[in-house]
Amino acid sequence: MNTRFEQGPIRPPSEAKSLLIRPIRNCSWNKCIFCHNYRHSQFKLRKLDDIKNEILTIRTMTDRITELSLILGQGGGVSDALISHLFYKDNSLIYDDQFKHVAAWLYFGGETVFLQDGDALIMKTDDLVEMLNFLKETFPRVSRITSYCRSKTVLRKSAEDLHRIWQAGLSRLHVGLETGYDPLLKYMRKGVTAAEHIEAGRRIAESGISLCEFVMPGLGGSRWSREHAVETANVINQINPDFIRPRTLLVRQETVLYDMMQRGEFQPLSEDKIVQEIRLFIEHLNGIGSHIVSDHILNLIEELEGKLPDDREKLLGIIDRYLELPDEARVIFRLGRRHGIYRTMDDLDDRHIYMKLKKAAERLSFYGPAELDRHLHQISQNFIP
User: What angle do helix axes 225-239 and 194-207 make, rounded to 10 degrees?
Assistant: First the structure.
């Protein structure tokens, strides 16, 4: 089956089980110096009719998947046997990635949708509402629709617009706050101020749409680490989002920030310093009921998850547990985490794996104290931010 609907390059980890629909291409701003996703790409609003036709294409695919299920004796549902038939049998080459994506979406319930690329809210309100209504009419089981958006875009929408969009079915917006420190926002060319982030966050909350704010530990480098942590917490305190999701800075080779780092104009923090910065950030979160979710491979401590204010001490205790590890254990944990072997600090208790990682660390250290950091950074370059 030929590919007949577009998909963009990224989505949040929390949308791993969601159907991906692409109403816009790339990013309308595309100037942030730490971002590589759309660096050489042109922004484009897609035609509403094209988007609706692709939604109908997906509907046709779901009908075909139901037929295959019935042929295989699976009763019309997307079972393990059907997934095996599509993905692992010799005839899996018949089906393209989009068809498999739709099958996987149905396998996980077929209830959530993520709108790509960088800021679907930038669509005209009438068009966005029409698309959302059409999507829900075509797939009545869909219960959650989410998107990335910029704070600047939110400020261009009236309160009535945002409420209409929520009523049409947009459930959650993921906003790249990154930092609440104005000099750093300017340095990173985010094109927004802390005050605008606050106003946009409040408007989203008032509209009924759930709000997730992304913050970027390490973004201030050695120059602005404390200011970044404290001022970002101050901005978050004034927004009180539903979710706070850390996305640790990775200086990608394809970015302006990488070129600046090579010239010595930006000094990144070590992983341990970034963990200390996250602790400072959490210490300064007050008067909010947000969930903190560390759900990305770029974050060293994945188990950092809890709801404020009740889980504050638990969160700080998780960080302190890492910081109080012996030097060797912290190195081993970093190596295991970046290779996908470790997910929590309890994994350090497996002595067999620990000793294997220790030998690997010793081999890397033989070439000099900086070799381990270089190795871990190179692995991280392969992660999708």
Answer: 30
CA 30, CA 35: separation in Å to the nearest integer? 8
**Angstrom distance (rounded) from CA 373 to CA 62:** 46
Task: Tell me how far apart the alpha carbons of residues 361 and 61 are, in angstroms, rounded to a whole number.
Answer: 48
Mean pLDDT to the nearest integer, 346-375: 87
Report the mean per-residue pLDDT for the chain. Answer: 93
Name the pTM for this structure: 0.92
Beta carbons within 8 Å of 42's beta carbon, 6+ residues apart = 25, 26
Which residues touch 231 (CB under 8 Å, ≥6 apart)? 179, 180, 181, 182, 194
**Torsion sign, CA atoms 46, 47, 50, 56:** positive
Of 297-301, 330-334, 375-379, the poorest mean pLDDT is in 375-379
Closest CA relative to residue 121, chosen from 81, 72, 155, 80:
155
Q: How far apart are CA 68 and CA 99, in angstroms?
A: 12
Q: What sign has the CA pseudo-torsion 190, 193, 194, 200?
A: negative
The closest of 157, 156, 150, 154 to 117, measured between CA atoms, is: 150
258: left (phi over 0), alpha (psi -120 to 50) or beta: alpha
Res 103: pLDDT: 93
Q: Which two tokens stand for residue 28?
A: 């309308």
Q: Are 321 and 301 in contact (CB under 8 A)?
A: no
Map out the domains of the chain with their CATH numbers.
Answer: 1-144 (no CATH), 150-324 (3.30.750.200), 326-385 (no CATH)
3-state secondary structure of 77: coil
Using pLDDT thresholds of 50, 70 and 90, give the confidence band for residue 246: very high
Report phi then psi at 39, rounded to 5. Answer: -55, -40
The SS3 assignment for 190 reads coil
d(CA 336, CA 3): 37
H helix runs in 240-326, sequence order: 256-262, 271-283, 312-323
Antiparallel, parallel or unpaired: β 305-307 and 291-293: antiparallel
Tokens coding 254: 């394809």
pLDDT digits (tens, 9 = 90+) for 53-101: 999 999 999 999 999 899 889 899 999 988 888 887 655 567 788 999 9
| Amino acid at residue number 158 | S
